[in-house]
Amino acid sequence: MQSVLAGVRVVDFGRFIAAPCCAALLGDLGAQVIRVEKRQGGEDRWIGPIGAGGEGAMFMQNNRNKLSLTLDMGAERGREVASRLVASADVVVANFPEKTLFDLGLDYDSLRAFKPDIILTSISAFGSSGPYRDRLGFDAVGQLMSGAASRTGPPDQPVRTPVQYVDVGSALAATVGTLAALMHHRNTGQGQRVEASLLSTAMTMTSVMMIEQAVTNINRRASLNRGQQSAPNDIFAVRDGWILIQGVGQPIFRRWAKLMGVEDWLSDPRFSNDKSRGENWSPINQRTQAWCVERTQSEALEELERARIPAYPVNTLQDAIDDPQVKAMGFLHYTDYPGLPRPAPIVEPPFRLSSCPGIAPKRAPLLGEHTDQILAELNYTAAEIAALRQEQVI
Question: What is the C-alpha separation between 245 and 301, in angstroms, rounded?
């Protein structure tokens, strides 16, 4: 069965997470993805090394299903190779500030000179306009500038999460935009530029909080793990760990009150709806915590599930790997890589298609592993490839 993007060639000039992750998702859908790296390897190849060769976990995940071409983009002959590569491609993916795109010749107008119908998918920290357009930024800049960090942690200490959700969210947004551009190309034969940014992704994720703030001027402060718009909505200690309980809506609160033995609270005006329960959360949380400490995690979760009250364990990373639901869904593909002491659990894309499944993850490439193959496909002779290597272009 043919994959959705079979026959599509993507050239990935990305680094770190957002662009490489976007390109990997396109590869999951069947596109041929060529990652272009510095001759010594991109910075993201070596972050958090886990194997004998020095490659890191970030690289393993975000560069599955790719071919690797090393190239010195600063050399004149390197630019010539890049132009021939772009001319063979359908999509170019890059995540650089606007000025850097121009400096590398990866801006949309420059690419169109080599391939008039090219699609450029560019991801930056702040977008292509505005006073911050040429600034560098990583995932945390989105968390901080969107206001998310001000609502995370204790009231007097903003906290960012180490989970790079802004980067990955930007990759997903860029992938959606790229798929739309490919559909447009199929219908019209025209290319276009697709833009995504860390800031726009983070603003989308905090949009509900922003609307509430702009309209009500409520100025909410962080409250650790406690949700502020309903109760119980918090992480609670049990005898052997922690669980999350989320009571949202009147039916769940009724079931919670019955389970906790406080059905008389259903007529208490302090607890009449989610808003009032969020404001009068303390007695609800105290009752829930007293109930939890008498039970183990498995006992509490079993009773809460029988009562149809949303509750979940607070997993460690190893717990997540071993979780029976994760195993049953087959989210992790254990993939060998040269020099790893054991296979790496590569996470599959967060969507599935029933009629045209994507590509099972193949290991990330070794540095320059496919350079000769790719250049041969671009009609370079063996002698020309050897000369490029001798000149340290590849």
Answer: 9
- From the list 347, 340, 344, 371, the residue with the least C-alpha distance to 54 is 340
Pairing of strands 233-238, 32-37: unpaired
Residue 33: burial class (beta carbons within 10 Å; 0-12, 13-18, 19+) = buried
> pTM of the predicted model, to two decimals?
0.94
Tens of pLDDT, residue by residue, the chain (394 residues): 678 999 999 999 999 999 999 999 999 999 999 999 999 999 999 999 998 999 999 999 999 999 999 999 999 999 999 999 999 999 999 999 999 999 999 999 999 999 999 999 999 999 999 999 999 999 999 999 999 999 999 999 999 999 999 999 999 999 999 999 999 999 999 999 999 999 999 999 999 999 999 999 999 999 999 999 999 999 999 999 999 999 999 999 999 999 999 999 999 999 999 999 999 999 999 999 999 999 999 999 999 999 999 999 999 999 999 999 999 999 999 999 999 999 999 999 999 898 887 778 899 999 999 999 999 999 999 999 999 999 999 9
3-state SS assignment for residue 69: strand
Cα–Cα distance, 47 to 364 (Å, whole number): 14
Rounded distance between C-alpha atoms, residue 330 and residue 240, angstroms: 28
- DSSP-assigned letter for residue 364: P
Residue 208: how many CA atoms within 13 Å on its side-chain side?
3
Measured CA distances, 214 to 109, 155, 207, 210, 220 (Å): 39, 20, 10, 6, 12
